[in-house]
Structure formats: C-alpha cells, structure tokens
Specification:
About 45% of the residues lie in helices and about 10% in strands. By secondary structure, the protein is of the alpha/beta class. Helix 1 packs across helix 9 and helix 14 packs antiparallel against helix 15. It is an enzyme of class 3 (hydrolase).
Amino acid sequence: MGNRGMEELIPLVNRLQDALSGAGQSCGLHLPQVAVVGGQSAGKSSVLEHFVGRDFLPRGSGIVTRRPLILQLLSAHTEYAEFLHCKGKEFTDFDEVCKEIEAETRRLTGSNKGISPVPINLRIHSPHVLNLTLVDLPGITKVPVGDQPVDIEYQIRDMIMQFICKENCLILAVTPANTDLANSDALKLAKDVDPQGQRTIGVITKLDLMDEGTDARHILENRLLPLRRGYIGVVNRSQKDIDGKKDIKAALLAEEKFFLSHPAYKHMAERVGTPYLQRTLNQQLTNHIRDTLPAFRSHLQSQLLALNKEAVEYRQYSPDDPAHRTKTLLQLVQRWAVDFEKVFDGSGDKVETVNLSGGARINRIFHEQFPYELVKVNEKMRREINYAIRNIHGVRTGLFTPDMAFEAIVKKQISRLKGPCMKFIDMVSKELITTVYQCINKLSSFPKLRDETERIVTNEIREQESKCRDQVSLLIDIQLAYINTKHEDFIGFTKVGPLPQVIRKGWLTISNIGIMKGGAKEYWFILTAESLSWFKDDEEKEKKYMLPLDNLKLRDVERGFMSSKFVFAVFNTELRNVYKDYKWLELACNSLDELDSWKASLLRAGVYPEKVTGNGAPESFRDPQLERQVETIRNLVDSYMSIIYRTVRDLMPKTIMHLMINSVKEFISSELLAQLYALGECSALMHESPEQQGHREEVLRKHAALKEALTVIGEISTSTCTTPLPPPVDSSWIHCSSPLSPTLLKNSVTGAKPAIRGHAPPVPRMPIPTGPTAVSRTDGLQQLASQPTRAPCVPR
C-alpha cells in the first residue's frame, strides 16, 4: 500500500498541474514527474501497464511511442480514463484509449514514424493504482528503419534530454536483464544529467528471460554499477502472454511467484516486483515534490505579483457602466498625455538604445540638419554678383563697387532662406506626427478612441504648423524690409574704402628661386581680393613681400620626375617682373587637392589661367577689376548673411518650439479630453477590440490559475511521510583484497577465473540490504575499479 501522505500529496500536485495548464505555457514551471527512459523493447510499456492493470498502450515493431505521454494515475472507486485534449469525455474501454493515443500521435507526427515533443496528457482513475505521475518517452534507437528520418536518434535523444535535464524530474532508467548493463543507453543518459545519482532509479526487466545459470542478484543488490537509489527488478508479460491476452492480475501473481521461488531472489522478494516499484516511486516522488514546492511557490508568487496590478484593473473594468467608461477614458487620455510629453523631455520609462526618437530627433533637426540646409544657400552666388554689377553699370564702365549690387544680392539670399525654413517646419511636423503614432499604440485596446485621438491631435499639429509657417514668413519679410549695414558685427566700410577680406591662407613653397639666392623655401601666404602676400611664418609678423593682383595670371607647371610637390606659377601679362628680377613665381603644394583649392581661391580673386580650355570661361569673367569688385561684394554679403544666419538659427528653433511643440503638448494636456467628450460617443470610444478582450480574459484567467495553484500548494499536508535521500554510493568494496565469489567472477567484465584459490581469508557475509537504495558491501577485484563492468546476465 502507498503511504497516506502520498495519497494526499499526489492529487494536489495533479490539481496544481491542471491549474498551471490554465495559466498557459508562459508560467514555465516544471512539476515533479517520473520520466521513463529506455531503449526500444526494454519493457517500458509493460511496466506502465502493470501499474494500471490494463492494456492501453500501442504496441508494434520499431518506434511506437512517438510523442511523450504524461500519465497521471489516480486512485479512485471507479475505473476510467480521460485525455486533456478531450475534456469531459470519459473512456471506460481501454482499447479505445489505445486507439485515441494512436490517433492523437498521428495528428501531429503523421504516419512516417516521425516524433514530436508535444506531450499527450492522459489521466487514469482506478481502484487498482497508486497515485503517480509518469512520462513515457520514445525508446532510444540507433538506426532509422523504413521511412524514419536519418537523424531519428538525435531527435529522440534531444527530446529525452529536454525532460530529464530538469532538476526536479526523477528518472526511471529501464534496462532489460538480458542485455549488457554497462552499455545501457538509459543509464548513460541518466548519468549525463544526474552524475550524483540523486534522482535516478534503476529498473531491471525481463529477469525471467535470462539464460539458465545466470542471475542479476548482484545488480539488484546494487553491487554492479551501483546507483544511489538502487535497482528494482520486475517481471513483465512476454509477447506470447500479450498475444494470448493474459490477464495482468495473473501476470502480477506470476511475478510474485517467480521471485518467491527463485533461489537468487527469494531473500529479497519483498523488495522487488511491480507493487514494490509502485510504492518506491510514490515515496520518492513524495520526497521530490516536498523538496521542490518551495521554489514553485516563490516562482508562482513572483508571477502573481507581476500580474496583480493589471488583473485588478481588468477586474474592476465594467464595459457596460457609463461612469466606469468615463473614468477609464479620463485615465487613458491623461496617461497618454504624460507619455507623449515624456518622449520629448527625455524622461520616458523606456530608453531607446538603438535609434534616436522623439525629442532627440528634433534636437538633431535643430542643431544639425537645419544649419546644413542654410549652408547650401550660398551656391552660385558669385555668378549672380557678377551679373548684378554688370547690369547696374549698364553701358558705362564702373570704377567703384556699386552698393545696389550688395543690397540686391543680400535680399535674394535672405529670400532663399524661406525654403530651408519651411523644410525645417516640415521635418519637425513629421517628427511630431511620428511620435503621435508611436504613443497612440497604447490606446490600441480601444480602436475608436485611438482613431479619434489620432485624428484630433494630427489636425492640431497641422493647424499649428500653418501658424508657424506664417510666423516664419513674417520673420523673413522683416529681414528683407531693412538692410542694416550699421550692425556691429558687419565688416562695413572704413574711410579709405572697403576692408580687404582674406580669401585664403596657407603654406606654399616658392620653388624657382636659385640656390645662390637661398633656394626653394616655404612661406605663409595670404590671398585677398587685392594682393598675394607671404610671411616668414604663420604668426604673420614678418612680411616678406606683397604682390598686387593686377594683370596676374595662372600657368600650369609640369611636375618634376623626382618631385613630390604639385606646382603652379603666377606671372604678369605685361611681362613685368612679379618678384625682384623674376618674371614668374612657381608655387608648390603638397597635394593635388591643395593645388586645386589654391587655383579656385585665385579665381575668386580674379587671377585666371593663361589659357582657357574647353568652352572657356565666360567673357565677363575675364576682367580682373570686375572680379575684384565681385570678391569685395561677396565678402560683404558673406559678412551680412552670417549675421542673418545666426539670427535665423537662433529664432527658428524658438519659434517652432513655442508655436508647434509646446502648443501641441498644451493642447493634449488641456483640450484633447474636452474635444473627445464633445463627440458625444463615449460608449463607442470605449468599445474594446477583440484582441483586448482576449488579452483581458487571458490575464484574468492566468491570475486566477496562479492564485488557485498557490492555494493548492498551501493545502499540502505538512505531515506527509518522507524518507531521507540515500547516502552516496560506498564503493570501498571494490578495493577489498578478497576475491569475488566464483559466480560473480564468472559474470565479471573480464570473464577470467579466480586468480587465487583457497588461500584468501574467509569472505565475511554482508547483511542483505534493507531497501532498494541500500548499498551492499562484499569482496571485489582491484581491476573492477578501473574497468567497465558487464552485467552477469550475459553468459560466456
């Protein structure tokens, strides 16, 4: 009979399993179970059927168990079976149970002998069983047969490992007695995941099929490949008995008779057989469940705590109560307004670590993208200044730089700022709408509310965008209304004329000075619209020479064979010396990019190449005096526009922040709710989506299931009988100097005869173990300590 504590405990654990199944797979809890592991035709199915007392498992050749079978045995007054996938249907015919298992297996795996890790849950109520929960796993196979997949061995091993690697899973390692115990796949897998043997129970089947003269006594006495929980022997029905429909009750009586009459087992008859295996598993499962329940309770409580707040809100929610709908609407809109504002302030609950979002993206528009758009306005300005000066002079030849050209160009440049400013507004508006879309997902539980909120807020953004455009246009018009040349930051004009503006500075080498006159030397050059000067160094204190730009032109100089420099020359078109007695100066740069840059700067100053290639430069560009005027106006325009740029860069973010971002945030926090109420469709706004209804029901169901599971755990009796874990296996008998008995030596791994005959001290008789997990001591050979052993059931 099973212990009373076990009979109280197992039904509660089964209730716990049912409760957790209601909570869904997300709970991730692994309840204490007994997993039955063994090779094909090892007798696993027969062991399970002996527990139940009925034939209910599919049989056949090859792999028959292709899905894990979670078998719950419950002691009851009536006998029937039920499947979890067939709730409410009771099976009293166990042939129908067998057919249902086969049908459910084929439903997922088909008929190609494939396997699936999805379990079949079967519960059997019977007055002939003790309370147990077992998992029947597919038999271990090596070679695929028929149309089985080529990796069937690895699939089965992976599935078995998924069950037995759990720390709270007891392993029932089934091995036939007529095979080599040292080669048992079940024991090997068990040892891989349970090296200390704390949760492995060995089962030896087919003891009645061993060859005459051999037995498994030393295995059952835990002296060969000892396990901490020991071995239990059973005798199952043979295939002939099964085909002959031999009654299981009769088979159990035959098993009892076999052990009582067999000379090797009759002294341990009370500790072998299927009934004793049932009682042992009950007690071991009791211990295991009691040890693991505290961790279960802690895990369940943490999950329950995580769901409490949401479950309380859902439990209080009443879709048909107008007052509750109004309250929920108020809370949702207020919460959404806070979240929207947090996105811009950078104080959100979740910080994005992959991309910029919200306020960070707008900050980048303010300080990176908008300034870049302003810089691009300067393109093609030089050509426009040239045409403006020529059109102002008309047929006359102008000696002075006209003020009208400066004002015309400045106004045109200011007008061009409208484009970047409007683009700036578009970018910010787009980010605002994107942020609305991101935050609006929190209202997805109520589709009508989400759509109306999105529509109202988007319209407000568009309205504020229009106001912002008008304001920015006004700012540009204000700048166009008056050109303030008296601004303190404007370079202006001195009494002697316009201040020469520096076009370029940099190091150049004068390479055509002879060695007798000092040779090639590097100087610091400064190019303005009027002259080209060079200094001893970049401190610009000691000026070497100033060369006027009048009548100067450029000439290309071929690069020398051994030279690493890039050279160009300047010369006077009237054949005058440009420097002392030199008709030209060869100036060298360190790179081609630097050479091109200097040429471009000289072109801006009105110094053009000697020869024009291709279509040639426009004729208007060939007048040095005109080019100097162009350069002067350009410098003045650059100075004035830099003031405008600073003003625009400062005012634009402030204007957008005030008229768009802050206005929209204020609207959401103070007026959005009023506009939603004004729609007069509160009930329609608060109509839940089907997804939200399902989520709410799932949360409530999971919350109730977790509470029920905790209640079940609290009902477990503290007086449940338990037994301590057996001590670690004591293998000191291996190192004893006395030889083994002839019978044991005959079945050892080496098969050798005793090396010592009659001269060893008498072997003391060790007491018979008092339990299935006890460890016996006897004599042994030193070689068994270092060599794998072979089961005694294999005759030599």
